[in-house]
TrEMBL record:
Protein name: Cephalosporin-C deacetylase
Residues that bind substrate: Y91
Region (Disordered): 119-144
Active-site residues annotated for this sequence: S181, D267, H296
Annotated source species: Labedaea rhizosphaerae
Taxonomy, superkingdom: Bacteria
Positions with biased composition (Basic and acidic residues): 119-129
């Protein structure tokens, strides 16, 4: 895959206008206040996942509208940690298997893996019928007519409630939010909306600068937007207005915790310009690792250790 987006120097200068509507902050205040009306406590059930070195738990917590959301909790040896990383998942992925999530615990960091509702490898269903209406197959245009109905409202609410659950379950003193692709976009949202975030680790974050993504990428998920609007061109303005409530660059402009981004310059799924749109608007301390010849895998296992080193420099494990 050749480089298809702008040169790196231009990417570092790219700062499109923010797209948030005047009621953006009130929209999210009301959304999260309603979600927190459900005061059910999260449950953590010890499980035998064949992993002997760490304590592993199957977690259920109340997400959007109190609906049950699943997660894995993996604690390092001794059961306590200074850091807990709350990790969100990529598009279509879900929480997977416990043994997919052992690196943080092996390095002395607790990890809470939040499931993604309705995604193919997840365990959490999407029960809401609010997003019914015309949309392209997939999640990007479910509820495109109204931000209150859009799927991403529920997914991001789940993400914030996942941080709430982690803070009630894990006796760590610092909480980071992280994730690849869609999970990186969720991490940016939680950094702006959640309580007590001490670090943000978005890898090749999706859900940023939707208009640019739909204009440039010929791959799903951004392609879903273009395919939908090709069939319904009269809905272009309404659709992008709706998506603005879930745009990572709007959240980034409100996030202040130290952050480490990653971007891959040959990524056809999440164009580098969309990542820099969020990074260049990020309001807090920030750094970015650029992988010139990588695609959507980003920095892979090398960057995984970069994340851990970043946390270590903020506060020793």
């Amino acid at each position: 895959m050749p480089t298809f987006d702008w040169p790196l120097g231009e990417l570092r200068r790219y700062q499109p206008e923010l797209t948030h509507e005047p009621d953006f902050d009130l929209f999210w205040q009301d959304t999260l206040a309603a979600a927190r009306e459900c005061t059910d406590a999260p449950s953590a059930t010890p499980i035998d996942a064949g992993v002997r070195a760490f304590a592993t738990y199957d977690v259920t917590f109340p997400g959007w509208a109190g609906e049950p959301v699943k997660g894995w909790l993996v604690l390092p040896s001794g059961g306590s940690a200074r850091w807990c990383v709350v990790e969100y998942q990529g598009y279509g992925v879900g929480r997977g298997r416990v043994h997919d999530h052992l690196l943080y615990a092996a390095c002395g960091v607790a990890q809470f893996v939040v499931d993604a509702r309705g995604h193919s490898r997840g365990d959490t269903g999407d029960r809401s019928a609010e997003s019914s209406g015309p949309h392209e197959p997939g999640f990007m245009t479910q509820g495109a007519h109204d931000p209150r109905a859009h799927y991403m409202r529920r997914l991001i609410t789940d993400a914030v409630r996942g941080l709430d659950a982690a803070r009630s379950l894990v006796s760590a003193s610092r909480f980071a939010v992280a994730g690849p692709s869609q999970g990186g976009g969720q991490a940016l949202a939680v950094a702006a909306l959640g309580d007590g975030v001490a670090a943000v680790l978005p890898d090749v974050p999706f859900l940023c600068d939707y208009r640019r993504g739909a204009d440039v990428s010929d791959r799903v998920p951004y392609l879903e937007i273009a395919q939908f609007l090709r069939k319904r061109p009269e809905l272009v303005d309404d659709t992008f207005r709706t998506l603005s409530y879930f745009d990572g660059m709007n959240f980034a402009s409100r996030a202040t915790a130290p952050s480490l981004f990653s971007v891959a310059l040959m990524d056809p799924i999440v164009p580098p310009s969309t990542v820099f749109a969020a990074y260049n608007h990020y309001a807090g301390p920030k750094d970015i690792r650029v992988y010139p010849f990588n695609e959507h895998e980003g920095g892979g296992s090398l960057h995984a250790m970069q994340r851990l080193e970043f946390l270590r420099k903020l506060a020793e494990f």
